[in-house]
């Protein structure tokens, strides 16, 4: 089993090999289902000139927003600026390059990249600034634009459970972008709540097969809530 064991014991080992200029595909949605410890490790490493592909950049002091403070990010591919004032500030001042992408298109860019599909046609964005400079083709009388898929040097995801072979199970809303992101990295690192022995996961319940996953680390999650709403 040792040759297949993908569990690492430190965040340094989990993110080993990350270098300036790399593209990181990050699962999660704002603060939901994000690999908190892996993001903190990237901040600690002070890696620069990064391209980050994720739904959004979290908030000022948590999630991917942490990487904005020391200007580690060169470009963000996202569908939402969100509640992050620093992200908005750096976007408006031209300090960071932002490629806004429709949310479904962003998810499909990740999925297609992981499936080895270099590009695909979608009707989403046709006739808007999203389509500028992109090839247009008509199918059954409807125009579609060509979108290129996305891959990265690293993919970082958050899962509920993993076995030592790297098979992953996501829970509830952490199913957002994590399954697609997990397939699109040359090196995929999963930060998980629980690690079990091989054979303990029901095969039909596995969302991401271990063939896509290179490293697994057990994390301690704060699971911060971005905006709490309660009744009076």
TrEMBL record:
Cross-referenced PROSITE patterns: COA_TRANSF_1
Entry-linked InterPro entries: 3-oxoacid_CoA-transf_A (IPR012792), CoA_trans_fam_I (IPR004165), CoA_transf_BS (IPR004163), NagB/RpiA_transferase-like (IPR037171)
Coiled-coil intervals, chain numbering: none
The enzyme's E.C. designation: 2.8.3.5
Alphabetically ordered keywords of this record: Transferase
Family: Belongs to the 3-oxoacid CoA-transferase subunit A family.
Name under which the protein is recorded: Succinyl-CoA:3-ketoacid coenzyme A transferase subunit A
Record organism: Pseudoalteromonas haloplanktis
The gene coding this protein: scoA
């Amino acid at each position: 089993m040792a040759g297949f064991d993908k569990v690492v014991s430190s965040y340094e080992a989990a993110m080993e090999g990350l270098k300036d200029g790399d593209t990181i595909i990050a699962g999660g949605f704002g603060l939901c289902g994000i690999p908190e410890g892996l993001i903190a490790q990237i901040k600690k490493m002070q890696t620069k000139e990064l391209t980050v592909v994720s739904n959004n950049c979290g908030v000022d002091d948590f999630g991917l927003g942490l990487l904005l403070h020391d200007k580690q990010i060169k470009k963000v591919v996202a569908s939402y600026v969100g509640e992050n004032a620093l992200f908005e500030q750096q976007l408006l001042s031209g300090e960071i390059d932002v490629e806004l992408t429709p949310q479904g298109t962003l998810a499909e860019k990740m999925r297609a990249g992981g499936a080895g599909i270099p590009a695909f046609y979608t009707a989403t964005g046709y006739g808007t600034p999203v389509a500028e400079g992109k090839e247009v083709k008509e199918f059954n009388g409807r125009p579609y634009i060509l979108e290129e898929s996305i891959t990265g040097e690293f993919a970082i995801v958050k899962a509920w459970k993993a076995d030592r072979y790297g098979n992953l199970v996501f829970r509830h809303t952490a199913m957002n972008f994590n399954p697609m992101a997990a397939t699109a990295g040359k090196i995929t690192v999963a930060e998980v709540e629980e690690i079990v022995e091989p054979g303990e996961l029901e095969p039909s319940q596995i969302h991401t097969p271990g063939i896509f996953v290179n490293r697994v680390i057990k994390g301690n999650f704060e699971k911060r809530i971005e905006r709490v709403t309660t009744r009076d």
